[in-house]
Amino acid sequence: MESVQAIKQRFGIIGNSGTLNRAIEKAIQVAPTDISVLVTGESGVGKESIPKIIHQLSHRKHNKYIAVNCGAIPEGTIDSELFGHEKGSFTGATQTREGYFEVADGGTIFLDEVGELPLTTQVRLLRVLENGEFLKVGSSKVQKTNVRIVAATNANMFQSIEKGTFREDLYYRLSTVDIHLPPLRERQEDIHLLFRKFASDFALKYKMPTVKLTDAAVQVLLKHRWSGNIRQLRNIAEQISVLEHNRTISAEALKAYLPTSGSNLPAVIKTSKSESDFSSEREILYKVLFDMKSDLNDLKKLTLELMKNGNSKDVEKNNEGLIQKIYGNTDEEDYEEAVEDDVLSIPEQTAVTPEISSKPDKYHFAEEIEEEETLSLHDKELELIKKSLERHDGKRKLAAAELGISERTLYRKIKQYDL
């Protein structure tokens, strides 16, 4: 069995991180077997190196090794690519075609971005893993294949399973052995080493002197998050090698190539909803109904005033603020003046004209509307007042503004409900 250091030299892997060494050790151990392997890690960490190590150290090394990017093949053609198709099985199938599983018989298939596979293809792949059988598209003849599958993904497979986009049984068949490659930010000791290697390679490629970093630039390099991992570091090294005239790179020059440099502080995410914004849908509904009830009571009060006085001009003059509140916008003074009386309760008919008193049932509907509480608005009104007072630590002015009533009215309601 080859050593980890020998494998690194053979496959051009740079780094001395303990987690990287452990991943390579696991690849060396499982290579002689036919166990299915799932390689996990963020995009750009170098997951494609592990399947190559496994294939070259296995008894299949003299047979084909095929790497397939599952995310790059359209959903409508991926079954044909993997399993082949018969002539005439679909439009454009002018001849019979062998799929990757048929071509790689006896070898290894690397399924990169396996989490992107459609559910129908996942069912076919599960059958291959279970008994080595598959069907070509448009064929009823079962074919056998002896292929070792190594898969890789940068997605959270458990989340995909919960969402129903990936089969749980297929996940456990693929991940008999799970090899995780760490992100570059967790390999601090390897970052500068990798940069020097890339800078040397590009200097040789473009026939120019190798760039070097100052001590301050090295610190900037180590503190960067490297969301794109090794792939991003390689691109930065190539840009600097080509574009910089000065071959000694300062911290300021390096920062110009690093996206969002200096913004590595943890983000503050507001996870709790505001308590004063009525964010609950049910509470919003009750707030709307509460406002509707308030407007309805205002209208009832105005109607009773008209019935008592009979003079619409006097009523309009005496209830100007109330009318503006119902039918149009008004300023703060008019509103406070309009709600001197309790607009949420209906005044008693103490001075009814003879015509009205002689027909007591004519306007009986007004009293019935007040008593009818099909949605328990009385209780919800009390609940909203309590919540508003709690949110504002008992400050009636703020609570009244939130509820859309005056402070005087809120005070009366507090006394009414004995809060």
Report what the structure shows.
By secondary structure, the chain is an alpha/beta fold. Helix content is 50%, strand content 8%. The protein has 21 helices and 9 strands. It has helices at residues 4-11, 18-30, 49-56, 78-83, 100-103, 119-131, 157-163, 168-174, 188-206, 215-223, 229-243, 251-255, 281-309, 312-318, 320-327, 332-338, 354-357, 364-371, 377-391, 396-403, 407-416; strands at residues 37-40, 65-69, 108-112, 133-135, 142-144, 148-153, 177-180, 212-213, 248-249. The strands form 3 sheets. The chain has a 5-stranded parallel β-sheet with strand order 2-3-6-1-7, with helices on one face. It has a two-stranded antiparallel ribbon with strand order 4-5. Strand 4 (133-135) and strand 5 form a beta hairpin. Helix 2 (18-30) packs parallel to helix 3, helix 9 crosses helix 11 (229-243) and helix 19 (377-391) crosses helix 20 (396-403). The longest helix is centred in the C-terminal third of the chain and has 29 residues, at 281-309. The chain is elongated, with a radius of gyration of 38 Å. It starts with a helix and ends with a helix. Mean pLDDT is 82; it is low at 273-278, 330-359 and 362-375.
